[in-house]
Amino acid sequence: MPITVTRDLSQPMRHIVHIRGHEFPVDVSADQGGTDSGPGAHDLYDAALASCKALTVVWYARRKGIALDDVRVEIERDASEERHGIYRLHTRLHLSGDLSEAQRQELLAAAGKCPIHKLMSTAATEITTSLA
């Protein structure tokens, strides 16, 4: 099932993303001509990585019986060299629970193996765009 993005004509730049029955807005900031009514495309790209890391850590902890109570992932972007082919993302994992240092390191390693991390850091993405 494809992901679709449709224009919301009630606002200058707002669009609605449709994914498997889920809908959410995307927009740009006011200084870019939007109304900031939703995250932008770069935000979604960054959030894909952060959410993948969070989901992977929880999945791994459950599978290994690690007493993880909660995880929060913060991500910061440095797009200052994006036009030169370098897009930096720094993630920080906040782990809570009765965890030893070894378990914390194990969960950190699991986060580094999330599918989106692998995709962003090792795969060449080929994109085609055509007219409908």
TrEMBL record:
It comes from the Bacteria. InterPro entries: KH_dom-like_a/b, OsmC/Ohr_fam, OsmC/Ohrsf. Transmembrane segments: none annotated. PANTHER family: OSMC-LIKE PROTEIN (PTHR39624:SF2), PROTEIN INVOLVED IN RIMO-MEDIATED BETA-METHYLTHIOLATION OF RIBOSOMAL PROTEIN S12 YCAO (PTHR39624). This is OsmC family peroxiredoxin.
